[in-house]
Amino acid sequence: MSGQAAEDEISSPTTNAVEEKPVSPLVEPQCPDGGLQAWLQVLGSWMMIFNTWGILNTFGDYQTYYESGRIFHASSSDISWIRSIQSFMVFATGALIGPIYDRGHLRLLLIMGVFGVVFGHMMLSLCHTFWEALLAQGFVVGIGGGCLFVPSLAILSPYFNTRLGLAIGLAASGSSIGGIIYPVMFAKLIDQVGFGWTTRIIGFAALATLLVPICVSRMLTKPGRVRKLLDMTAFTDGPFMLCVFGCFFGFAGIYVAFFYVPFFASSSGFWSASKSLYLVCILNTGSFFGRTLPNWLLLWSGLQNLGLATNVTCSS
Question: Any transmembrane segments, and where (predicted)?
Answer without folding.
Answer: 81-101, 108-131, 137-157, 164-185, 197-220, 240-265, 277-299
